[in-house]
Design a protein that fits this description.
Among the domains are: about 75-200, no CATH class; about 200-235, Complement Module, domain 1 (Ribbon), CATH 2.10.70. Helices cover about 15% and strands about 45% of the residues. The protein is built from one helix and 17 strands. The protein has one helix spanning about 1-30, and strands at about 35-40, 45, 60, 70, 85-95, 105-115, 120-130, 140-145, 150-155, 165-175, 185-190, 195-200, 200-205, 205-210, 215, 220-225, 230-235. The strands form six sheets. It has a four-stranded antiparallel sheet, with no helix packed on it. A four-stranded mixed sheet has the order 8-9-11-12, with no helix packed on it. The chain has a three-stranded antiparallel sheet with strand order 15-16-17, with no helix packed on it. A hairpin with a 5-residue loop joins strand 3 (about 60) and strand 4 (about 70). The longest helix is centred in the first third of the chain and has 31 residues, at about 1-30.
Length: about 240
């Protein structure tokens, strides 16, 4: 009799473990998979498309997670001129920060690559995340100006869902940008409150360099250091 009870307990524990593993797997897959559209009132919207009928006409767009993100009413940020044409935008969790409130103003340029009219920019910034490394829903856009590009991202900061200060990464990959005739090219990030961060990049030899990068200028046969937007060179 005791063996039968023990066997039943083992079966019950096995069932619970298998069920828990399935729940974790489904949750992870739902978090990792990005959709290509949102559906509202039977209408399908592509990523970053405006959804004017949502929330009484607030400035809302479709995020690449399949959720609708809206600009906060108190925001002074204007999205006029920002687009998502030929752009892929992704976001990822970095780590939690031991502080009460995120610094929403500053952003850090982590990596930038320009090759064959393709521009890839990776930044890090602070925001609020949920538990279990859950990043807030976001949607990215960019705006080309005379001497540079401005990046932005609408971020859901609903504190009933996201309440832990964290560091996140944003990756903007933009195609069909020609910079061959640019003598200089600035890269900036504007948050959803309108605050601007200029990353002080340099443009030389058809490439974009981060502030502090050292590179060889083949035209002048010099070693140069980026002090964005200018660079200082020493003859070899």
């Amino acid at each position: 009799m005791a063996k039968v009870k023990q066997r039943n307990w083992l079966l019950l524990i096995t069932f619970v473990l298998v069920f828990s593993a399935l729940v974790i797997l489904v949750t992870t897959l739902r978090e990792d998979l990005k959709t290509e559209s949102c559906v509202y009132k039977g209408v399908e919207y592509s990523v970053n498309d405006p959804i004017s009928e949502y929330e009484d006409g607030k400035d809302c767009i479709c995020s690449n997670s399949g959720e609708i993100v809206c600009k906060e009413e108190e925001s002074s940020m204007s999205y006029e001129g920002f687009v998502n044409e030929s752009m892929s935008f992704t976001y990822s969790f970095g780590n939690y920060l031991d502080k009460d409130q995120p610094n929403l103003v500053d952003a850090k340029l982590v990596d930038i690559q320009y090759n064959n009219s393709s521009l890839r920019i990776v930044i890090e910034r602070e925001t609020l995340c949920g538990d279990f490394n859950e990043t807030p829903v976001q949607a990215g856009m960019y705006k080309l100006e005379e001497e540079g590009i401005v990046l932005t991202a609408i971020t859901n900061r609903d504190e009933s869902i996201y309440g832990r200060v964290c560091l996140i990464g944003n990756t903007f990959e933009i195609q069909n940008i020609i910079l061959a005739d640019k003598s200089r090219f600035s890269v900036s990030y504007q948050n959803d409150q309108g605050d601007m961060t200029n990353f002080r990049t340099c443009f030389a030899n058809g490439n974009i360099y981060l502030n502090g990068d050292v590179f060889k200028d083949s035209e002048s046969n010099s070693i140069c250091t980026c002090s964005g937007p200018e660079f200082e060179c020493e003859q070899l």
